[in-house]
Design goal:
alpha/beta, six-stranded parallel sheet, 19 helices, 45% helix, globular, binds nicotinamide-adenine-dinucleotide, binds uridine-5'-diphosphate-xylopyranose
């Protein structure tokens, strides 16, 4: 059996590497039109940083895992074609800023129809609006030359930074298909591949539309929990309740559960915001404005939380950060990834630069080039952004340190040393509630955290 995956990104690369590892008899070809990305997958430094991924790719690459730009050739040869292309928020025309941009999905469907000369199973791996499988089927049917296609939905639930662990032991694998004899056969083929390492009871099969919709709903529910606890963090700051204590107390209720209740500077990542906006847009499209508004508020609360963080920095620093050096520790949207898409750090840096601060960023995995590109350094504000080679370098001479990513290494920093090198009074704004606030206050720092009031030092 031959598998091809179109799209060698954060999802396509790791998911296919896992299939290749678990099914050495299946040839897996990951293709992408981005030659630089493919070259990186074939090099020593992979384009995606994920703990444990290098080992798997090294084990399988050249054996039954191949990365190439030969999209058409891979389509012709494959029995199963995973579509793992990007589905970003549309930036133009109807639905701009909310709807999913499906041009990459449609382009792949047309290429598959042009190239296929034997039966194919098309698997939607990308996150797409419910009913997209209908569009794919229509395009395939209109352009196929007698070739039989089956379309399945198999959304991916991995989280970045834990992709390998998530793929190895997923809570569930979801596969949606048509309840026709051909659809059932295709569904079973995919179930059998996952069943090589995933217990059968964790492989959930549904109709196409339930599967497509479940992905958007899962992300909306997860993000909703973060916005909920973040909204409470503001109330905690006003009342001297402690948001971590509140989260712990409510999370002990088995009906609520402890996960995804960590208050923060705001959620980031390529999925949550995009998928909720998409869900909200779909609701409106289907004549449900109240439902659309309900889900949109999750994103609105997140935007507010990000802005609120910068406002707190400005207010604490005596209502001006102009020409003050602010060290930003962490730029990735979460720890253990080099991904910066929709990272709260981007907003915070831009807002601080807009306040005329000198912003110095350090992140252990994100390149200086990426940081500059994300913040946008073309104007005078951008000229005040710099990137440091270490946390200590970033903090040297700073008026304040803002922790924006929860990298473990930040917990082990020598804050006595950092304090000694900073302008006084020295502030720490912990956007992740990562550090030992009492210890920092004892050193002399003025500490501001999310959803709690910290007893201050000098
Ligand atoms: P990505 O941008 O990292 O990768 C997508 C790749 O597809 C790019 O390298 C791009 O060059 C390639 N591509 C686009 N059109 C192509 C075409 N016509 N032919 C060949 N290659 C093409 O995106 P990603 O983060 O891997 O996400 C992919 C999909 O998976 C999205 O729909 C996303 O919502 C979903 N998803 C992402 C995550 C995540 O954690 N990143 C998790 C679950 C689901
Ligand atoms: C998310 C979903 O978890 C995953 O199932 C889906 O496939 C893709 O989208 P990801 O964006 O990679 O995964 O990371 P996730 O761990 O969900 O974190 C998203 C953002 O929320 C990060 O910025 C993270 O720091 C933040 N977060 C997460 C919080 O602020 N508090 C929490 O309690 C959890």
């Amino acid at each position: 059996m031959k598998i091809c995956c179109i799209g060698a990104g954060y999802v396509g690369g790791p998911t296919m590497a896992m299939i290749a590892k678990q099914a050495p008899d299946i040839e897996v070809r990951v293709v992408d039109m981005n030659a630089t990305r493919i070259a990186a997958w074939n090099s020593e430094v992979l384009p995606v940083y994920e703990p444990g991924l290098d080992e798997i790719v090294k084990e399988c690459r050249g054996r039954n895992l191949f990365f190439s730009t030969e999209v058409r050739e891979a389509i012709r040869a494959a029995d199963i074609i995973f579509v793992s292309v990007n589905t970003p928020t549309k930036t133009y025309g109807v639905g701009a800023g909310r709807a999913a941009d499906l041009r990459f999905i449609e382009s792949v469907a047309r290429t598959v129809a042009e190239e296929a000369t034997s039966p194919k199973i098309i698997v939607e791996k990308s996150t797409i609006p419910v009913k997209t499988a209908g569009t794919i089927k229509t395009i395939l049917a209109a352009n196929a030359r007698g070739v039989a296609f089956e379309v399945l939905s198999n959304p991916e639930f991995l989280a970045e930074g834990t992709a390998v662990a998530d793929l190895l032991a997923p809570d569930r694998v979801l596969i949606g298909g048509e309840r026709t004899p051909g659809g059932e056969r295709a569904l079973q083929t995919l179930v059998d591949i996952y069943a090589r390492w995933v217990p059968r009871e964790r492989i959930v099969t549904t109709n196409l539309w339930s599967s497509e919709l479940s992905k958007l709903v899962a992300n909306a529910f997860l993000a909703q929990r973060i916005s909920s606890i973040n909204s409470i963090s503001a109330l905690c700051e006003a009342t001297e309740a402690d948001v971590d204590e509140v989260a712990n107390a409510i999370g002990k209720d088995s009906r609520i559960g402890p996960k995804f209740l960590k208050a923060s500077v705001g959620f980031g990542g390529s999925c949550f915001q995009k998928d909720i906006l998409n869900l909200s847009y779909l609701c409106e499209h289907f004549g449900l404005p109240e439902v659309a508004e309900y889900w949109h508020s999750v994103v609105a609360m997140n935007d507010w939380q990000k802005r609120r963080f910068t406002t707190r920095i400005v207010q604490a620093l005596f209502n001006t950060v102009a020409d003050k050096r602010i060290a930003v520790l962490g730029f990735a949207f979460k720890k253990d990834t080099n991904d910066t898409r929709e990272s709260a750090a981007i907003n915070v840096c831009r807002d601080l630069l807009g306040e005329r601060a000198q912003v110095v960023v350090y992140d252990p995995k994100v390149s200086a080039e990426e940081i500059r590109r994300d913040v946008g350094c073309a104007d005078a504000d951008g000229a005040r952004l710099s990137v440091a080679a270490s946390a200590y370098e970033a903090c040297e001479g700073a008026h304040a340190v803002a922790v924006l990513t929860e990298w473990d290494a930040f917990k082990a920093l020598d804050f006595e040393k950092i304090y000694a090198g900073m302008t006084k009074p020295a502030f720490v704004f912990d956007g992740r509630n990562l550090l030992d606030h009492a210890a920092l206050a004892k050193i002399g720092f003025r500490v501001e955290a999310i959803g709690k009031v910290v007893s201050q030092g000098q």
